[in-house]
Amino acid sequence: MTSNPVSVFSELATLDWRTEDFSYAQLKANLPRPAVNSQTAAETVQQIIDDVRSHGMATLRDLARRFDQVELDHTRVPQAELDKALADLDPKVRRALEESISRARRFAAVQVPSDAVVDYSNGGTVTQRWVPVRRVGLYVPGGLAVYPSSVIMNAVPAQAAGVQSLALASPPQKEFGGLPHPTILAAAKLLGIEEVHAMGGAQAVAAFAYGVDMPDDARGGIEPVDVISGPGNVFVATAKRLVKGVVGIDAEAGPTEIAILADGTAKADFVAADMISQAEHDANAAAVLVTDSPALAQAVRGELDVQVAATKHSERVRQALTGSQSAIILVKDLNQGVEVCNAYAAEHLEIMTANAAQDAARITAAGAIFVGDYAPVSLGDYCAGSNHVLPTSGTALHASGLNVNTFLKAVQVISYGKSALGDVAAHVINLANAEDLPAHGDAVAVRNAHKALN
């Protein structure tokens, strides 16, 4: 821990709420959030979607040229390139990916729900049957970083759900000859994903949602999917919102965020390191420390002075930590801290307190909760076994992280014979008449009166 008595990392905002008595609405209104204007993006993205629907591969080629500076005659990555990417992969990275896949599969396997059956009298049954969606489009971003971990986090729960057709899209990279990053291709090969497309941005979402017909191409077109999952920038998130309903989506992801609930027992160097770990994603990333210890807050500032200067993406980190979305929030006690965290509903919430497990049990809104000093968010990003595709921007109040159920449908199956229907026929008729829908009742009455054939 740094011994500097005064931090020069003064740009990180402090919100002193120790004397505040906010209502829930006031609390939500005063929480630090990124300022995101999606209206301009929506107009641009809608045009891209319309162009992909109208012109298909011609639009994909044009946008790859404009945005990725590559020339494409098709999007499908040849199997030989997937094989080569895996063969050329650094053995240490391969072992890490294999461990991540193994742990993710163990956790996904226990999420698969069982069918539920209720047997009413005289043989009437109602069953809830879980059925996987037919086809899923997985989006893996490019941009400032490489995300083979996102291949794992999206593919493993879909595979555990029983999805038979998986297609993956990732932006073409100029430095790799118009292919997605080779580590992403290698991860896809490890997972058995054979259909990989070099396409990114809103156009990839549109292609998955509506399909792309290429009848003159021996490689075939892109078949529409039923669900699109995976994180991306504001254009990807906006495109997913605009095609929702045509397809299902996992979530409309915003900038990544971390909140940390800590008391005076927390280690300032751990706290600072974890704030930096999320801030390095991009300048819009959010890092919020909630603490009842002014001494810890000051110590964290001192650590940020040292660690931000030493980290590779220091300028990006500084922009994120000094933006309106990041802050240190001082609270009078941990009870208030828990209230703040539940209102904030962080994508990632770390608990570093003297009684971390008990405090974590009081959290009702978070994408994922990391308990104790030795469960940093980066563990969940790669090798905890949990999924790192999580709800952002406060949507953890009502949404869940990516899981097997994202790729399943609950189908209700009703099986009633004549005797079972007769047990409730009068109730159905009476309720139908009460709702002034007498034909509903007649559909039961005609059966109740019908004589069984000999």
Explain what the structure shows.
With 454 residues, the chain is α/β, with parallel strands linked by helices. It contains 17 helices and 14 strands. The chain has a six-stranded parallel beta sheet with strand order 1-11-10-9-12-13, with helices on both faces. Strands 6-5-4-7-8 form a five-stranded parallel beta sheet, sandwiched between helices. α9 (234-243) links the parallel β7 and β8. α16 runs antiparallel to α17. The radius of gyration is 26 Å and the shape is globular. The model is unreliable at 1-8 (pLDDT under 50).
DSSP strand tally: 14
Strand order in the largest sheet: 1-11-10-9-12-13
Helices, by number, come to 17
Tell the overall outline.
globular
Q: What's the alpha carbon Rg, rounded to whole Å?
A: 26 Å
**Averaging pLDDT over every residue, what do you get?**
93
> How would a crystallographer describe the biggest sheet?
6 strands, parallel
Query: Helical amount among residues, as a percent range?
Result: 40-55%
Structural class: alpha/beta
Percent strand: 5-15%
Distance between the termini: 88 Å
Which spans have pLDDT < 50 for at least 5 consecutive residues?
1-8
